[in-house]
Amino acid sequence: MFEILLTTTLETFAVILAYMFLVFIIALAIKDNSIVDIGWGIGFIVSTAFLMYRFSAYSMFFIILFAMVALWGIRLATQILVRKIGEPEDFRYAKWRKEWGKTFLIRTILQIFLLQGIVMLLNMIVVINSFVVYEKIHTLPVLSFSTFQFAGIAIFLIGFFFEAAGDYQKSRYRKTHPGKIIMSGLWKYTRHPNYFGEILVWWGIFIYSTIAFESLIGIISPIIITLSLLFVSGIPMLEKKYDNNTDYQEYKKRTSPLLPWFPKD
User: Fold this and answer.
1) With bands split at pLDDT 50, 70 and 90, how would you rate the model's confidence at 194?
2) CA–CA dist 123, 163 (Å, integer)
3) CA of residue 154 relative to chain centroid, distance
4) Residues 6+ apart with CB under 8 A from 19
5) Residue 212 — very low, low, confident or very high, per pLDDT cuts 50/70/90?
6) How far is CA 95 from the centre of its chain?
7) CB 186 within 8 A of CB 165
8) What pLDDT shows up at residue 258?
């Protein structure tokens, strides 16, 4: 099984690299590297579609798995696209464009597109492994729906709601309260409902895809996503922006950082 997993992972990585190269060419042509953020969610859909074709896996189990990945990816890409229409290159990428100077091209390839491709592959392990396990045991009745599948779908949907509703509420609030910090709706109960939702989405996909003991290797993906949002690129980076914001510090004292809970008085 390890050999099949390794081969499939390398094949999927090749697809991801080809896809990221295409996004890089488009970014180069329009001089806007921030479109990689739009392409991020779509890359998961492309990779999952490739795996369905690779394994000829079109049963209801994999149609639902694909639907979950597609629903997550399309929502994310659409949200970023709508927010970006008419806007210049995101300030982070514009800053790197200036700082990197003559090394801009190679560093763009390595530090933006290749790096995001590697992260995408790591997050895709849970999906890749599902197809590999299916290849091994597809003749057994274990693929019939069980408590794991129904629980996974439920957790995914709860996570998707928190992520979508949280982003929508924040976007709508910013239009009427520019420069202000949202503290209402889901944001009243958690400082990061979108991150909470993102974590649940990928734990839901993992639980859904647990069809045999070998499936447990897929836990790599939700663990990476959870640790990244909690300790690296999620909560720490975002909250650092508000270190000197007194309103946010008060909000921080009374509101749960991630798990939804009633605010402190």
Assistant:
1) very high
2) 17
3) 18
4) 39, 43, 46, 47, 117
5) low
6) 24
7) yes
8) 96
> Measured between alpha carbons, how far is 177 from 174 in angstroms, rounded to an integer?
5
Identify the residue whose tokens are 């970023």: 80
Give, in degrees to the nearest 5, the angle at Cα 234 between 128 and 103: 80
| Contacts of 30 by beta carbon, 8 Å cutoff, 6+ apart | none
DSSP one-letter code for 144: S
What six digits make up the tokens of 209? 């895809």
DSSP 7-61: HHHHHHHHHHHHHHHHHHHHHHHHT-GGGHHHHHHHHHHHHHHHHHHHHT--SHH
Q: Which amino acid is at 179?
A: G
**Which residue's structure tokens are 């069809």?**
211
51: Cα separation from own chain's centroid: 18
68 burial (CB, 10 Å; 0-12 / 13-18 / 19+) is buried
Distance CA 166, CA 192 (A): 8
Q: How big is the chain, counted in residues?
A: 265
Mean pLDDT estimate for the chain? 92
**Residues 248, 201: Cα–Cα separation, whole Å:** 27
Distance CA 208, CA 11 (A): 23
Sorted by sequence, the CB contacts under 8 Å of residue 213 that are 6+ apart come out as none
Distance CA 114, CA 141 (A): 40
Specify whether the CB–CB gap between 119 and 47 falls below 8 A: no
Q: What is the pTM of this model?
A: 0.92
In three-state secondary structure terms, 128 is helix
User: Which residues are CB-contacts of 83 (< 8 A; sequence separation ≥ 6)?
Assistant: 171
